[in-house]
């Protein structure tokens, strides 16, 4: 049995159901919204609190997308990215349904969907996304982000791992097929 599709192990690589993927998505949304609620309740806009010498908690509002891209573009992006997030999540759940035999792929899409919906909720309720994780080195700061962004990034990384494993398995299968059919 190949590594990507092994459903005999009692691990996260067990064959997911659409319901279990939905549960992961809901957990991501809940943790994201809870963490943003805590930041909004305890920090004023632009307030920063050092946690470690390389990490601050900070309250910032992002009207754009990743790394504040398009943040100053007049407001159209709020509705565009809300629609995009909802549409992409619907497509991801269609793909989860069609690919239930691909656990890593399904879990990755569930994480991405949870992150997308977490940020959509902010856009709908607030008109911006609350970001609060600020990593820095000396005077250089990475763009602030949140748990939804982290889930999207983790899901994207898992998709890369999935594709690497899948292409490796495909190359192995092709090589074995060539050996069987060669004289």
Number of helices: 4
General shape: elongated
**Strand content bin:** 5-15%
Quantity of strands, as a count? 4
- Oligomeric state as shown: single chain
List low-pLDDT spans. 1-10
Strand order of the largest sheet: 1-2-3-4
Which structural class do the helices and strands define?
alpha+beta
Mean pLDDT: 86
Largest sheet: 4 strands, antiparallel
Provide the helix percentage: 55-70%
Provide the succession of SSEs: HEEHHEEH
Task: For the record, give the distance between the C-alpha atoms at the N and C termini, rounded to a whole number.
Answer: 27 Å
Radius of gyration: 20 Å
How would you describe this structure in keywords?
disordered N terminus; 183 residues; 4 helices; alpha+beta; four-stranded antiparallel beta sheet
Structure description:
It is a single chain. The protein has 183 residues and is an alpha+beta fold. 58% of the residues lie in helices and 13% in strands. It contains four helices and four strands, in the order αββααββα. Strands 1-2-3-4 form a four-stranded antiparallel beta sheet. Strand 3 (129-137) and strand 4 (140-141) form a beta hairpin. The radius of gyration is 20 Å and the shape is elongated. The two termini are 27 Å apart. 30% of the residues are buried.
């Amino acid at each position: 049995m190949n590594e990507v599709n092994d459903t005999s192990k009692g691990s996260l690589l067990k064959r997911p159901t659409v319901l279990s993927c939905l549960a992961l998505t809901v957990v991501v949304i809940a943790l994201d919204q809870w963490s943003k609620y805590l930041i909004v309740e305890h920090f004023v806009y632009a307030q920063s609190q050092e946690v470690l010498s390389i990490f601050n908690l900070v309250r910032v509002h992002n009207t754009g997308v990743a790394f504040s891209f398009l943040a100053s573009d007049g407001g159209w992006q709020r509705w565009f990215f809300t629609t995009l997030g909802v549409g992409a999540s619907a497509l991801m759940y269609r793909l989860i349904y069609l690919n239930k035999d691909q656990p890593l792929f399904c879990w990755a899409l569930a994480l991405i969907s949870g992150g997308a919906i977490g940020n959509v909720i902010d856009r709908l309720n607030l008109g911006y996304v609350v970001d609060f994780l600020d990593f820095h080195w000396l005077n250089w700061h990475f763009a602030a982000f949140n748990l939804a962004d982290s889930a999207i990034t983790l899901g994207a990384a898992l998709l890369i791992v999935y594709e690497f494993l899948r292409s490796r398995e495909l190359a192995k299968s092709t090589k074995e097929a060539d050996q069987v059919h060669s004289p």
